[in-house]
Amino acid sequence: MLENTWYSVISPESCSSILWRSWEFKEQAAEALKLTAIDMKKQKLIDDIIPEPLGGVHRDKETMFKTVEKYITKSYKELKDLSTKDLVAQRMDKYANMGEFSEK
Predict the structure, then answer these.
(1) Were 15 and a residue from 29, 62, 65, 97 both cysteine, which residue would form a disulfide, CB within 3.0 to 4.6 Å?
(2) Helix-strand-coil split of the chain, %, nearest 5
(3) Whole-number Å distance between alpha carbons of 5 and 62
(4) Confidence of residue 104 (pLDDT cuts 50, 70, 90)
(5) Which residues in 3-93 belong to E strands, given as ranges?
(6) Angle at which helices 26-33 and 12-20 pack, to 10 degrees?
(7) Direct distance between the N- and C-terminal alpha carbons of the chain, in angstroms, rounded to an integer
């Protein structure tokens, strides 16, 4: 996940609107949604946080393409020698554990 992106099935504004009937609490909703790359990494929903070029992706797309390529290549090298059975088992374990909550 790129370092300055966020992912959520609902926007903080919409979440705030549903929970508090107002957009005023969008910052609290955003915090509760845990939608940043750091939050996603802590929850083990993503494998890596990919650093972005200074000023953002839109300012230096080529550098971003090369950085993403490095992360994809690294992941491929880690996975390419696994048997299909092991690869599927590893993925199933990963996805089965997504959404588990613990107070660590």
Answers:
(1) 29
(2) 60, 5, 35
(3) 18
(4) low
(5) none
(6) 110
(7) 23
Residue 23 makes CB contacts below 8 A (sequence gap 6+) with 13, 16, 17
State pTM to two decimals.
0.78
Place of tokens 């494998």: 47
Distance between alpha carbon 47 and the CA centroid of its chain, in Å?
8
Tokens of 5: 């992106």
Measure the CA–CA gap between 24 and 33, rounded to whole angstroms.
Answer: 16
User: Is 16 buried (19+), middle (13-18) or exposed (0-12) by CB count in 10 A?
Assistant: buried
